[in-house]
Amino acid sequence: MTTRKFAALLRGINVGGSKKVPMAELRKVLEGLGHGDVQTYLQSGNAVFSSAKDDPRALARELEAAIEAHFGFKVPCLVVDGAYLRAVADACPFPAAELEGRQLHATFLSEQPGEQRFAGIDGPSYLPEEYRLGDRVIYLYAPEGLGRSKLGEALARPAVVKGLDVTSRNWNTVVKLVELTGGPDAA
């Protein structure tokens, strides 16, 4: 049986005392779904696992249902495989190696948005902050970090993300998830 490595990216957990999901319990939930090699990274909803199943969307829906059954609340999840994470890292349009991890973010999207969603964002007015759209990902360069980013706020507006499952990770986390999923040529 062939298995692939995936990363589950949970949105909005363990923030401000709400939607508490202990990582040890999340690992048990994933193992209970039949996944192997389960690991978590940080407390912010990053899990890596192997599975014989190959449909990331089906894996995400299955995990969402299991989390709701176990914890009693809904948590949006995106599941991506190691090859996709490596492709996201390789396609980064910003000089990632020269930046601090807090300055560069990847916002993962459940579907590829059309350019029209970004029509209301006047990029030059946010400089030195910048963004670029990739394959189901928005790359955000925010020199002062995401917490102070006005462009980050604009990219999170409903006009941009409505109807999409989205979750952001800083670049250090992206790099670590590439490593943990063993994406092709992982560092």
Question: What's the quick description here?
Answer:
It contains six helices and eight strands. By secondary structure, it is of the alpha+beta class.
Secondary-structure element order, N to C: EHEEHEHEEEHHEH
- Annotation, overall tally of beta strands: 8
Distance between the termini: 26 Å
Specify the helix fraction band.
25-40%
Mean pLDDT: 93
Order the strands across the largest sheet as they lie in space: 2-3-1-4
Instruction: State the major sheet.
Output: 4 strands, antiparallel
Radius of gyration: 16 Å
CA-based shape? globular
* Structural class assignment: alpha+beta
Give a written overview of the molecule:
This protein is of the alpha+beta class and about 190 residues long. It is about 30% helix and about 25% strand. It contains 6 helices and 8 strands, in the order βαββαβαβββααβα. The strands form 2 sheets. The protein has a 4-stranded antiparallel sheet, with helices on both faces. Strands 6-7-5-8 form a 4-stranded antiparallel sheet. Helix 3 (about 80-90) packs across helix 6. The model has no long low-confidence stretch (mean pLDDT about 95).
